[in-house]
Amino acid sequence: MNEVLGIDVGGTGIKGAVVDLSTGKLLTERLKLRTIQPATPKTVAKQINELIDLLDYKGNVVGIGFPAVIKGKHSLTAANVDSSWIEFPIIDHFTKVLNKEVFVLNDADAAGLAENTYSKSITQKGLTIFLTVGTGIGSAFFYNGELIPNTEFGHINFHKSYAEKYVSNFARESKKLSWKAWGLGFNEYLEHLDFILRPDAFIIGGGISKKIDKYEKYLTVKTPITPATLLNEAGVIGAAIAASKKMVF
Ligand code: BGC
Question: What is the residue-wise DSSP string for 97-108?
């Protein structure tokens, strides 16, 4: 299976493209629809079907990255999407409504898988913490190059709330934080992760990764930090990888 449709569901946008798995390149343009609010099982499936039509995808397999913990056939959490996804039979739902063979994984795990497969930015020795910083904060852990799925380090306790409420890109934009104010908060978050997890590398993905020149001067954490290289395409590519390998979490 060399050509698979990858979908990346986010709180703000739903993206899709057909991926050539032999190269990791996109075979179609990457289309993006603004996520209908509230993002319920019905509306998200409708929008994915719309992407399938727009991309004229005739294949039978679809990979979907989704912003929740995915265990077996269920989504267990819901952040930045409607709460009806909590403890929801996500795989059976999409299989039925899309009428395709469907594989679903956490969106940050998907983006990390893509980096690990095609960009090799993730070190094959020790612990790499990959963070997607966008509407929320997602995490993907790799130990000796192997994914440890479903970590939720955007949700660790932070300033009487949890981390993504303070240091996601959404928080930066909605609170109109300067790069300095946001960068210092993000550094505090990284220092905390560094202290409790002792990683060998941090990789920063998501919308904020391409703006690293604006905030890297505020990052004092000793562990090396590098921006992801696949940028906006990582989620879609990783979802296609997971589907092509028939990965179940
Ligand atoms: C969710 C994660 C997701 C991340 C990025 C968080 O709010 O809990 O599952 O990976 O947002 O979308």
Answer: HHTSEEEEEEHH
Answer for the pair 46, 11: CB distance below 8 angstroms, yes or no: no
pLDDT in tens, 52-110: 999 999 999 999 999 999 999 999 999 999 999 999 999 999 999 999 999 999 999 99
Task: With beta carbons less than 8 A apart as the criterion, state whether 88 and 96 touch.
Answer: no
Q: If you measure from the C-alpha of residue 10 to the centroid of ligand 1, how many angstroms do you get, rounded to a whole number?
A: 9
Please tell me the pTM assigned to this model.
Answer: 0.97
Centroid of ligand 1 to alpha carbon of 138 (angstroms): 4
**Residue 139 Cα: closest atom of ligand 1:** 10
Whether 98 and 222 have beta carbons less than 8 Å apart is answered as: no
**With a 6 A CB cut-off, is 90 part of the ligand 1 pocket?**
no
